[in-house]
Design a protein that fits this description.
Blueprint lengths: L2 H16 L4 H8 L5 H15 L4 H6 L7 H13 L2 H49 L18 H27 L9 H4 L5 H22 L4 H11 L3 H4 L2 H10 L4 H7 L5 H12 L3 H61 L3
Helix pairs in contact: 1-2, 1-6, 2-3, 5-6, 6-7, 6-9, 6-15, 9-10, 9-15, 10-12, 12-13, 13-14, 14-15
Length: 345
């Protein structure tokens, strides 16, 4: 379920439940919204609930569609009798994620357009070199030095680009799936100037928001932390769940002490959690920390988008400068050859 659809779904259910509408009535209306897959999933969800299953149980049967966080928090909402509040809080979380994503995409849109235009210009040059012939016959000089001409040359050029894009996509997929335990390198990535702290801030913003949602819904600290760690989508963070469980259950540690034992979180963050525990209003304090980190995450996203924009821009400029210099060298070489053929005056 796309996060934009998840946010709208949770918002409509939360508002409807607050207005006093029945869950079955709301879900029946939901079967008319979204993509065909979403309509089918919600229709099946409705039938399962009519059969006597709780909503989180019905969602669990379609865990390949409904987000894990939504299923877990729906269970918490049902258990604590705060389903309405849970859905509204989830809606705010998903809407914030959509906002950050749109902010990132809009900031890199122009550099991406420049890259596409540069590829288009080079494709046209390759195509022209294949269809035009010099006055004396033969082929035009390969001014790009790629050995590509005409329509077939353009297709090969695009194949090179597709292969490069596939490699980047494979790297991203491999990281998200933690292939080869790559998530263990997360602390190394955090050492990268500008980029590392920005990535860490965004992750902590998600962690604190889910932690605030879970605690506010009445979930115990162990399950709240476990759910928040899982929401990061990183095995590096999820590995700390067992440490937190042992520290709280067996040692009687506070949440901040348990989090410190994981050696995952920065001191500045742990200090904020510790202060929130001392204040005696843990739920509200964690909520304030989540608000602060979400504000920081917006600045962090601007930093990341600026870095990506810079990389794309430098790539485009480097590509164009290389081929401009290549073309200039070809023509200078041709002029020198012509002058040599003229011989001494």
């Amino acid at each position: 379920m796309p996060i934009s659809a998840a946010g709208a779904f949770c918002r409509r259910l939360g508002v409807g439940l607050r207005a006093g509408a029945s869950l079955l009535m709301l879900l029946e209306a939901e079967t008319k919204y979204g993509s065909p897959r979403q309509k089918a999933a919600l229709s099946e969800l409705l039938e399962e609930i009519k059969s006597g299953f709780q909503i989180h149980e019905a969602m669990q049967k379609q865990s390949n569609f409904f987000p894990r966080l939504m299923i877990a928090m729906t269970h918490v909402g049902e258990s604590t009798g705060k389903l309405e509040r849970t859905f509204l809080t989830l809606a705010e979380h998903y809407e914030q994620q959509v906002k950050l994503r749109r902010q990132f995409m809009s900031s890199i849109a122009w550099p991406v357009i420049q890259l596409v235009l540069a590829i288009g210009v080079l494709s046209i040059v390759i195509w022209i070199m294949g269809i035009l012939t010099p006055v004396g016959g033969g082929e035009l000089t390969d001014i790009l030095g790629l050995g590509l001409r005409g329509t077939s040359g353009v297709l090969v050029f695009w194949l090179y680009i597709a292969c490069f894009a596939a490699i980047i996509a494979a790297v991203i997929y491999g990281f998200r799936q933690n292939l080869g335990g790559v998530h263990n390198l997360v602390p190394v990535f955090y050492l990268i100037p500008k980029l590392g702290p920005a990535l860490q801030t965004i992750t902590l913003a998600r962690f604190t928001r889910i932690l605030a949602i879970a605690i506010g819904a009445g979930l115990d600290p162990i399950r709240s932390v476990k759910l928040a760690l899982a929401s990061t989508g990183s095995d590096y963070y999820e590995s700390g769940a067992e440490t937190v469980k042992v520290a709280i259950q067996e040692r009687g540690s506070t949440m901040s002490e348990a989090l410190r034992l994981t050696d995952i979180f920065p001191d500045t963050f742990l200090q904020l959690v510790e202060v929130s525990e001392l204040s005696g209003t843990e739920s509200e304090s964690i909520e304030h920390i989540a608000d602060e980190y979400e504000a920081r995450s917006q600045m962090a996203m601007r930093t990341i988008s600026g870095i990506v924009t810079g990389v794309i821009w430098i790539s485009v400029m480097g590509l164009l400068v290389f081929f401009i210099m290549r073309i200039a060298m070809v023509y200078v070489g041709n002029i020198n050859s012509a002058l040599q053929d003229l011989g001494p005056n």
